[in-house]
Specification:
The chain is of the alpha/beta class and 241 residues long. The protein contains four helices and 15 strands. It folds into two domains: 129 residues, 2-Layer Sandwich (60s Ribosomal Protein L30, Chain: A); 102 residues, Jelly Rolls, CATH 2.60.120.
Length: 241
């Protein structure tokens, strides 16, 4: 799993213990909900003590990661919300460095008026990256990202999509019609964005072509004005993303 901390002179250097960015490919991402300073019974820990609350919150993040088969060294992004940023800067960085000592996560620090309980002083969300694969490999779709979205085609009747189509706007005011996807074989990574732009009640049917499917169905319907569907091919079938 390639995972690289980004350091560039094209942007300002970090002002504290965080990285400018991380680049990760081929990883399973773990999104940790905001953790607060509570014990296993939900009782507040460290009321009025930002350093203790920071430690408790980070321990709770650590426990969630352990449950997902990860550790603190896998964290690539932190979002931290505090009620007193000056006090946090004075007392909490030393605690934070006990958990992150090098190649620090990319981080965001925000002062807010209050948290879920009046005694809470800090809440932290985390994103970690570990070895693993997503259920759908979108590498091919990312590869064509440079051209995706540069071509917009307006259609108002039955159309079979091909390599010249990217974003397809559908006007069904003259009657319902079908948009047919190309054969999935040989189309791995190809992506289409189908959008209905008219306010009529006429539906646009997206057909997966022959025995192929779109998330298990042979067809999908776009029926409401400005509804859209982004579809990507894995080489065998199509998936909505």
């Amino acid at each position: 799993m390639p995972k690289e901390v980004i350091r560039t002179d094209l942007a300002p250097r970090p002002l504290a213990d965080y990285s400018q960015a991380w680049a990760v490919t081929g990883a399973k991402l773990i999104f940790v909900s905001g953790q607060v300073s509570v014990d296993m019974d939900g009782n507040t820990v460290g009321a009025g003590d930002i350093a203790l609350q920071t430690r408790t919150v980070l321990e709770n993040v650590k426990k969630v990661l352990m449950g997902a088969g990860a550790e603190m060294g896998d964290v690539i992004k932190l979002n931290m919300y505090v009620t007193n940023i000056a006090e946090f800067k004075e007392k909490s960085p030393a605690v934070r460095r006990e958990y992150f000592s090098h190649d620090f996560p990319a981080s965001t620090l925000v002062e807010i008026q209050s948290l879920a309980r009046p005694e809470f002083m800090i809440e932290i969300e985390a994103i970690a990256a570990v070895e693993g694969e997503a259920t759908l490999d979108l590498t091919g779709a990312v590869t064509i990202g440079g051209s995706f979205g540069t071509s917009v085609t307006a259609i108002s009747s039955a159309t079979t999509l091909n390599t010249t189509h990217h974003v397809v706007t559908c006007d069904a005011s003259g009657g319902a019609f079908t948009v047919t996807l190309p054969a999935a074989n040989g189309a791995a990574g190809r992506m289409y964005h189908v959008k209905k732009i008219d306010s009529s009640g006429n539906a646009v049917t997206v057909d997966a072509n022959a025995s192929e499917t779109i998330d298990g169905d042979t067809t999908k319907i776009v029926s409401t004005q400005y509804d859209s569907m982004m579809i990507v091919c894995d080489g065998s079938n199509w998936h909505i993303v």
